[in-house]
Every structure is written in C-alpha cells, then in structure tokens.
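A quick aside before the break. I want you to see a complete sequence-to-structure record at least once, exactly as it would be stored in a machine-readable document. Don't worry about memorizing anything.
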Amino acid sequence: MNPMPYKITISNAVLWSTCSIALLPVAPNAVNSICMMLWVALILIYTFLPSNRKDRPQPRRRSLGMFLLFGGNFIFLALSLLYSSERQQGLAFLVQELPMLLFPFCFFLLDLPDDGKDSLLEKVLLTFWIATLLMTGWVFFNYWRLDLLSEFSKASSFNTILRDTAEKVTDKHPEYLSLYLVFALFIAVRQLIRTSRTMKLIYGLSIVLFLFLLLLLATRGPILSLLVAAVTVSFLRIRNKALKIIVPISLTAALLLLIRFTPAIYSRVLETKNTAFVPPVGLQFNSTNIRAGIYQCSFELIRQHPILGVGAGSDRPMLMACYAQFPTEAYQKSYYNTHNQYVNFWLLTGAFSLLLFLGSLVYAIGCNVRTKNYVMIFFCIVMCLSFLSENVLSRQAGVVFYYFFICLMVRHARIAAGSRRADG
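That is the input. The structure line, written in tokens, reads:
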C-alpha cells in the first residue's frame, strides 16, 4: 500500500523546511528561529503520524547514543544551573543555546524523510550557497552605496570600517560571516568541478566574490582555517602522487600571497608578530595582548573549578572581576568572553563536558573520513580551528550553523555507511 497522501505532503514540507534553516546567512535571527520551530513541529508530525512500515526509517537511523554525544553538552549546561551563581543569566544563555539540543534530537531521535540518495544534503548545501551569495551581494551593494571600496587599501587593525559596515547591514558578527563565506566557497569549488559549463561560470564568479569579501573582513581564524582545510582535503582527495604535493603547495602559496598583499590582514599579522603575548598595561592594548589577559583569567578560574566548571551565567561576573587586576581600561570598555570554544565549555561545565565535545568532533571526523565525505571533513577542520580563537557557539549565528550542519552530515554519513554494509 502506498504512503498516505498527507504523509507525502508533510514529507515534502519537512524537506523544504530543512532547507529553510540553511538560509541562515540572509535570515534575521527571529526568522531563523521561526524556521527552526516550524521544522521541529513538522518533523514531530511526520514521525508520529501513522504510516506503513516501508515508509518508516530503519532503526539504525535513530540513535540515543548519537543524541547524547552531540546534545549532551546542552544537558551539562542545564545541570550547571544547579550550582551557578547567576541562574537568570544562565537560563537566558540556555535558551539561546537551544539549537544545541534541538538538532541532535531531531536528526538522531526522530524520523526524517529521504527523497533520494544525497538529495536532502545537496539541496541544503545549494540553499546555503545561494543564501551566502545573496548576503555577499548585499554587503558589496552597501560598500558601493557608501563608497567604501576605496577603504580596501587603508584597512588595518585600527581601521575596521569595512568589518563594521558588514556587521551593521547583516546583523551578524564578521567572524560568522567569514565562516559562512569559507564554507560556501568550498561548496562552490565542489560544484564547479561537478557541474555544467553554464553553471561553472556562476560558481566561479561566486568563488571570486566570496574570497574578496573574506579578505575585506580580514578575520584571521576563518582565513587560517580555510588554508589548513583546503590543503588537507586536497591532499586526501587527489590520487595522483605528484598532484598530491603540487596542489597543496600551490594553494598554500596563493593564500599566503593574498594575505601578504591584503592590508587589513597583513596589518593584523604584523600586530601578532610585534606584540608580546602578555596582558596589556595602560593604553598599550590591541586584540593580541587583550587575549593574553582573557586566557590568563580563564585558566585561573578553570584551576579553581576544573571538574564542574563555574556554571552557565557565572562566567561573565567572574571574568570581569578577574580582569580588574590588570592596570588597563581595555577590559572595562566591553566584556570579553573566553574567546576559545574549548576553554568555554571547560569553564562553564567542567572537564567532562569538554571531553564530550571533543569526542563528538573526533566521531564526526572519523565517520566522514570512512565515507569520504569531503564536505564534512572540510567543515569539521574549519570549525575545529575556529573554535581555538572564538566562542563560535555563544551566539545563534554560530550555534545554529555548527549544530545544523554537523548533525545533518553525521546522519548522512551513518546512513551511507549502513547502505554500504547492506550492499557489501
């Protein structure tokens, strides 16, 4: 007997609502939240409406273990409210981090329809590429409207008008915009290799635009992660022994040259090189030595609370109190979080939470290496390196981006691995 008509309709709605979450680069946070809630509601309806056995996903696609592996950090955050000194702030943070629970719950404990091999994943990746292209066009339009493109040669770590304008017109921090650009750039390169001649021109143009905006935003972490991820994936992907060496070296040389001759980025390289990595004194502060004080205070607090952490919401007042020891006004002008996602998990919820997060990353990379999912390998490398310099998961723009794609692609890899075992 064929699936019931309303089931087919809901199935299509689930697929397209999944794609709507990939509109993250152009969707305001409120719209993105609505898309997520609608997606969750549709998946619940799809899962619990009656259907015949053939229409139901096989049990291997559901996994409590996967849910706990990827959603367990949210549980740690929730439990940390029991000993947090700032429960109200902690609860607000927990609401913001809800995607950390929702995506593992839906991808690993509920049913998602499949509309053909790789089809859902490909639709999502295409949607994300289109959204990033629209976001890039909007930023460049505003640069042109405000006559800011001439600022390219003047940009530096002190002249951040291009970064500030991009954040203002998109309502997203340049770090997140850069992560979107890096991932969309890889999607475009992948499609450039696989698609027809007409589309090759469009994908090629998008690569140029993405790379140019990435250089204008001059965020060090995403650019470094792009270099490392591109070299790693090209080494894994290319079979010819000579090309295995030539292509990574060429990519490295090309990106290093771009960095050297892009004022906004090279000025930040020089800043890092010429600044002692110690907490600032007086008015002598910049993004490099400010981080020295941040890491010093973060690890001081971790040494005091290594097992359970300080609890969600308690980090801000405790870090601010620690920053007061430094003879500078740098830390009074604005609040600085730990600027390291691994350190942040350890500080908030303790060593076990950090180990769980690291375990989820190792599993994600491992299962996608086995299935040769280079999109996922690239994504994981980019995120792992970005986590070293920013609390990527502390805002909706980051937590949705990471958990949506990591859970989607891990689910895809597990299905692909199961299909191969069945065929073999």
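Two observations worth writing down. The CA atoms of residues 15 and 74 lie 26 Å apart. The first helix runs from residue 5 to 21. We'll return to this after the break.
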